[in-house]
Amino acid sequence: MSESLRYIQAVNAALTWALDSRSDTVYFGEDVALPGGPFGATKGLHKRFGSERIFDTPISETGFLGMALGAAMTGLRPIAEIMYADFTFVAMDQIVNQIANIRYSSAGRWKAPLVIRMQQGYSPGACAQHSQSIEAYLAHTPGLRVALPSTPDDAYQMLRTAVVSDDPVVVAEARMLYPTRGPVRTDAPVEPVGGARVVRDGRDATVVAWSRMVPAALAAADELAAEGIETEVIDLRWLNPLDFETVGASISRTGRLVVAHEANLTGGFGAEIAARAASECFTDLRAPVARVAAPDVPMPAAPALQKAVVPEAAHVVEAVRRTVNR
Amino acid sequence: MGLPDDYRAMARIRRFEERLTALKDAGEIPGSIHLCNGQEAIPVGAARTLRDGDYVTATYRGHGWALARGVDMAGLFAEMMGRDSAVNGGRAASPYLSDPGRWFVGENSIVGAGVPIATGAALTAQRTGSGAVSVVSIGDGAMNQGNVHEALNMAAVLDLPLVLVVENNVYSEMSRIEDMVRVRQLAERAAGYGIPGRVVDGNDPDAVAEAVGEAVTRAREGSGPSIVEAMTERLVGHYSGDAQHYRPAGEVAAAREREPLARIRAAADADLAARLDVIDAEVAAEVEAAIAAARAVPYPDPATVKEYVYV
Ligand SMILES: Cc1ncc(C[n+]2csc(CCOP(=O)(O)OP(=O)(O)O)c2C)c(N)n1
Q1: Which Pfam families match (chain A) (predicted)?
Q2: For chain A: N or C, fewer Cβ within 10 A?
Q3: Residues A110, A104: Cα–Cα separation, whole Å
């Protein structure tokens, strides 16, 4: 069975599924209960499940992520919501020093089955503190899983996967994609963690993207096809576990790689993909790896300035052309 | 319970840490260790009020809490020796060890970070109706960490069964607490969270047990968190190797007169003193046996270094 849902509705459906089917889940964050969340992700959940299962916290990200960890260690399966990914930085200790470490440092005697849900990326007029794409900071830390759904179906499937996972998972959604609509397989079995997906076949170049850059890469591929350039597009989906196999197999067919993300260039996760391609696919590559990313500036607020930094389909088109024409 | 039991429990911790220091000096313990010499009455008094299933979270200065809650002594030695211990397989060592089997949520070597985590254990107790409480110990300096503030307020608004024990040993590393806060007692801050706060003599296990017991009862009844500030003194440096040049002359010597074991000794008549001598001998034998058992634990296999990152 498949339903046509907007991305944000798919998130709501996955959370409904989680609270309904698993009695050990609890959901908390800021303005998530009666208010239904700033973007409507938890609309109706408080009415249906009550304060025992979904409740508002004070504006205390460190406090409630630590609470999620302690609760996960002792038998609950918390889902904690960070309103904007940017706010993660006030709570990095609980993510990096605590949540990510506990299983390893206890030799597997504790586990931390929790989900941190957040949304990220720029939107017109949002300032530098409400616009960042923070996935590289998270993917750097062993012990965390990192998921970036790009479609309504993945928003549903990957969030359910995260809930079921016995490891801590950060699900970073794309705010700009919340209004997008698509079919959601609401009765599909829960998928295992991980797995990149080839979302368009092509023989001339591989574009690896995630989150908002996936639809951008698909739009770019349409445009390039009109010029006779066939682009393979991979939605990486999970940065951890990283499915480089799918990427490498594609490079072996196309010989060309473009990595596209909205986050800043330097130290972005694209650098990791490029480095792996250099060490594992050296002989397959027929052109230097290209990266599409925001330049290394904080995100400006004015739309006129944002246009000058935010990567879009046109940047992917240009990067693929450059790569193919070498 | 009562005097001989408390004495034994505190003597075990003291002896454990004295031998730990010697092993460190002899090169058997890599890494830094933080001792609770002088503070033993706090975990011992508090543990008296707890049941199986109650959670305890401590700091890097948490050996006393681990022992008071029944974590295996030989396992602790082995863990600190960097061996493949049943405690944490050599992944944690002295400042970050834990034991789910004893509901010991664990130590933490990030100042204050255990308080939000302990709040989560309290959330589990509340949501599952298990009746457990969550006790968390921190130092005086940790009261200035934002994570402690966030967790205390959250525990208060959610009425969580949390008890915060502040072990006020006057110093945070090398700085005096009076230079870092404008309140006379840290427990005064409880008023800011709308929860009870008490100050007790942290060198007296009975006083600690009475105050923590009251807070535990309140928590179990669903009336929310409390703060207990236990006044104490460090007999040794902040960490192994701390020369303590920042402490005024005579301070440590005076503290040695007031520390919990010396106090019991000073008040003991000949009869009791003889019983305490027997306890000391038994404790010494137990500790030596634990060291011998720990030495028999192999070092972890480097081939296992990547295990346990993910389930
Ligand atoms: C976030 C953080 N900052 C600094 C340190 C370094 N540090 C370790 S212990 C300590 C002093 C803590 O003092 P207190 O809370 O009074 O506890 P005590 O050591 O006296 O038991 C400091 C500053 C740390 N481990 N974590």
Answers
A1: Transket_pyr (PF02779), Transketolase_C (PF02780)
A2: N
A3: 8
Give the minimum alpha-carbon distance from B46 to chain A in angstroms, rounded to a whole number: 21
pTM of the model: 0.97
Residues across chain B:
311
Q: What integer best gives the mean pLDDT of chain A?
A: 98
Asked whether the beta carbons of residue B105 and residue A74 sit closer than 8 angstroms, the reply is yes
**Distance from the alpha carbon of residue B172 to the mean position of ligand 1, in angstroms:** 6
Instruction: Please state, in angstroms and as integers, the Cα–Cα distance from residue B210 to each residue in A115, A159, A258, B187, B204, following that order.
Output: 39, 47, 67, 16, 10
Residue B126 inside a domain? The answer is yes
A39 pLDDT above the threshold of 60: yes
Q: Please indicate whether, in this complex, the C-beta atoms of B151 and A67 are within 8 angstroms of each other.
A: yes
Q: Domain limits at B21? A: 3-291
Confidence of residue B240 (pLDDT cuts 50, 70, 90): confident
Residue-level pLDDT at B1: 54
Query: What are the structural domains, with CATH classification, of chain A?
Result: 2-185 (3.40.50.970), 197-324 (3.40.50.920)
Q: Is B95 in the pocket of ligand 1 (CB under 6 A)?
A: no
Q: Is A130 a catalytic residue?
A: yes
Residue B311 lies in a domain: no
User: Which CATH number belongs to the domain containing residue B112 in this structure?
Assistant: 3.40.50.970
Question: In a mutagenesis test of the B interface, which of A25, A55, A60 is the best target, namely the one with the most B β-carbons within 10 Å?
Answer: A60
Short-list A148, A164, A158, A152, CA closest to A21: A164
Q: Say if ligand 1 is within 6 A of residue B175 CB.
A: no
- Residue owning the nearest CA to atom 6 of ligand 1: B111
Query: Which pLDDT score is estimated for B3?
Result: 83
Distance CA B54, CA B19 (A): 29
CB contact under 8 A, B124 and A52: no
Q: Is residue B309 scored above 60 in pLDDT? A: yes
b/e map of B292-306 (b: 16 or more CB within 10 Å)? eebeebeebeeeeee
- How many domains does one find in chain B? 1
Do residues A213 and A262 lie in contact, with contact meaning Cβ atoms separated by under 8 Å?
yes
pLDDT of res. A191: 98
Ligand 1 contacts CB of residue B173 (under 6 A): yes
pLDDT tens, residue by residue, B168-218? 999 999 999 999 999 999 999 999 999 999 999 999 999 999 999 999 999
Mutant choice from B94, B105, B310 vs A, greatest count of A C-beta within 10 A:
B310
Q: What is the pLDDT of residue B228?
A: 99
